[in-house]
Write a structure and sequence with these properties.
alpha+beta; five-stranded mixed beta sheet; four-stranded antiparallel beta sheet; 7 helices; 13 strands; elongated
Length: about 220
């Protein structure tokens, strides 16, 4: 069945983009990556999303994350649409800071499981949903979010999630609800008390609960 699961390696697909033909793995190099799909060029919600992503491009760059979008129109349409996007972003003289894949035959959208069966164009063809894939430097899928075509994404939340993914890839911690960088993190359950005490110099605090179990352990990094 088409689609990707967490931990899968994203295929090293070739694609035509607004910066020319790419191979996905070569494009990413040793970086993290975020691939986000859009139902169609010159549509309102998509334009607001691409503009917000452009505004935040330096934040993704700080995190060593390469950005790339996908839509089912042609390269020529993407290039023309990019001008609208940057005008909406109030930066009409700045080029779009990331490429857009042209998937006009929907081949990549089918391969990656990106089509929305409920949203169709005037010819009755399914449009791409608002998919988000975050991949690590080993090209493994670390995050997958699927929005319907009618709901725009929150790119500030995507940055927050990437901060969590990158932190938890390096440290034996998890991030609790509404976590932001600088907040306390949780010690993973597989660490013993002794291991946690050795790893975390700022100490570990445990929240008491009626069950008496000591699984709610917090630390400051």
């Amino acid at each position: 069945m088409p689609g990707l699961l967490l931990g899968d390696t994203l295929p090293n697909f070739e694609a035509d983009t607004t910066i020319g033909k790419i191979k996905f793995h070569d494009f990413l190099g040793d970086s993290w990556g975020i691939l986000f799909s859009h139902p169609r060029d010159f549509t309102p919600v998509c334009t607001t999303e691409l503009a917000r992503a452009a505004k935040l491009s330096k934040e993704f760059e700080k995190r060593n994350v390469k950005m790339i979008a996908l839509s089912i129109d042609s390269v020529e349409d993407h290039k023309a649409w990019s001008k609208d996007v940057m005008a909406y972003s109030c930066e009409p003289d700045r080029p779009l800071p990331y490429p857009i894949i042209a998937d006009d035959k929907r081949e990549l959208s089918v391969q990656l499981g990106m089509l929305d069966p409920d949203e169709r164009d005037q010819q009755g063809m399914p449009l791409t949903a608002r998919c988000v894939f975050v991949v690590d430097p080993q090209k493994k899928l670390k995050l997958s979010i699927l929005y319907p075509a009618t709901t725009g994404r929150n790119f500030d939340e995507l940055l927050r999630v990437i901060d969590s993914l990158q932190l938890t890839a390096q440290k034996k911690v998890a991030t609790p609800v509404d976590w932001k960088p600088g907040d306390k993190v949780m010690v993973i359950p597989t660490l013993s008390e002794a291991e946690a005490a050795e790893l975390f110099n700022h100490g570990v605090t445990t929240k008491e609960v009626p069950s008496g179990k000591t699984y709610l352990r917090f630390t400051q990094l």
